[in-house]
Amino acid sequence: MALEVPELLLDPALKLWVLLPISVVMVLVGILRTYITMLLQPSPKLQSYKLVREQQHLNKLRTFKKNNHVFNYKTEFTNRLNYYNTEYSTTKYLKELPPSDPNDVPNPLTDPNSSDFIMQMVKSNAANYVPQTVIMWWVNFFFKGYVLMKLPFNLTSNFKSMLQSSINTPNLDASYVSSISWYFVNLLGLKSVYSLILNDGDAVNMIMQSQQQQQPVMPQLAGAGPTADKLFKGELEGALLIQFKSSLENVEDRFLQRFEV
Amino acid sequence: MAKIEKKKKPERFSKPIRFELSSKYNKQLITKVKDITSLSFGACCGILNLTSINGFIFFIITNIITSIAFYLIHLSLFKKNSVKLYYENPLSDIFLNDIGRYLASFTMMWCLLFALVST
């Protein structure tokens, strides 16, 4: 039934002058992009001590909740709980006093912190998308109008308009594609090549990094998420509900049971 | 003294505690091994001139073989039951994770070598 399609004869020079250059350029641009994003990252700014204090106290409360079973006696636990309850119910450790009107939400666009944050996001996004668009334009501009390669698998004819964009032969087999599709294949497949070349999975690097720079508190967008006093209140309510049970309770029984003959 | 229920492990102490950085590193080890193998097996596939479904079958088989080999080497190098200690859910971490990424890099090398070899 199927007509035997004669093999299209492709010029071997295409491989040398189109196929390999596109891959090499894409790898190099990818490496360049990672280094540029590295350079664009701002050095961590010093944070106001009030913000850090607030976060640390929140963390303290959370850790207490998580590890409450390490206390030996119930009195130890309740003493601490009472202390936290009296301390954190006040506004002593808050970065700023809660707004008197709860419906008064600050405009996130006027806050200087958040505009910095947004700028940073825009920059990193641009560093991702600009090179891709430029390469796509470059491939489309220089290498259009001919069949570059035959893909080793069949595609349905729906892909023709995308992958054979500049070739006007309606009956050509869809596995013969122009250079833009080689670009797409590279775009998807080069991820692992990058990670092998840049060696970002190096364990020593990672551990060094995490030790050197203390995790900065994420610059929260104003108006996004609950305010700190609500967070404190929520954590406290959770802590008050804890049914205390020491991990050392009945430990001798458990020990004996474990080593029973 | 309160009676304790028998044959019931206390739940909160049964799970091993993990250091996040180390388990991340362990996962990256798999990623590295599978990156290299999927790229090179893609090259093999292109040189062997496999087409359409044969190539994808080749990918699946080599991927499974790599995973099993990783698993077995892990077992032989370290003490028994170690895979469970090093990976939170070993089956999905070793066998299934990021399979799209490996398929993409496999396909890239396959296409490249297929085009280079065929004249």
Automatic annotation (TrEMBL), chain A:
Could you identify this protein by its name? ER membrane protein complex subunit 3
InterPro entries linked to this entry? EMC3, EMC3/TMCO1
Provide the topology term for how it sits in the membrane: Multi-pass membrane protein
Which branch of life, at top level? Eukaryota
User: What are the protein's UniProt keywords?
Assistant: Membrane, Transmembrane, Transmembrane helix
* Pfam families attached to this UniProt entry: EMC3_TMCO1
Tell whether Transmembrane helix is among the UniProt keywords. yes
Write out the function statement from the record.
The EMC seems to be required for efficient folding of proteins in the endoplasmic reticulum (ER).
TM region positions: 16-36, 129-149, 180-198
Automatic annotation (TrEMBL), chain B:
Q: Which residues cross the membrane?
A: 56-78, 99-117
Kindly indicate whether the keyword Metal-binding belongs to this entry: no
Instruction: Tell me if Membrane is a UniProt keyword of this record.
Output: yes
Q: How does it sit in the membrane?
A: Multi-pass membrane protein
Q: Which UniProt keywords apply?
A: Endoplasmic reticulum, Membrane, Transmembrane, Transmembrane helix
The entry's cellular-component GO terms read: EMC complex
Q: Where in the cell is it found?
A: Endoplasmic reticulum membrane
Q: Which residues form the signal peptide?
A: none
Please give the chief subcellular localization of this protein: endoplasmic reticulum
Q: Name one GO biological process term.
A: protein folding in endoplasmic reticulum
**PANTHER family, A to Z:** ER MEMBRANE PROTEIN COMPLEX SUBUNIT 6 (PTHR20994)
| Family note | Belongs to the EMC6 family.
**What is the name listed in the Swiss-Prot or TrEMBL entry for this protein?**
ER membrane protein complex subunit 6
Lineage summary: Eukaryota, Fungi, Dikarya, Ascomycota, Saccharomycotina
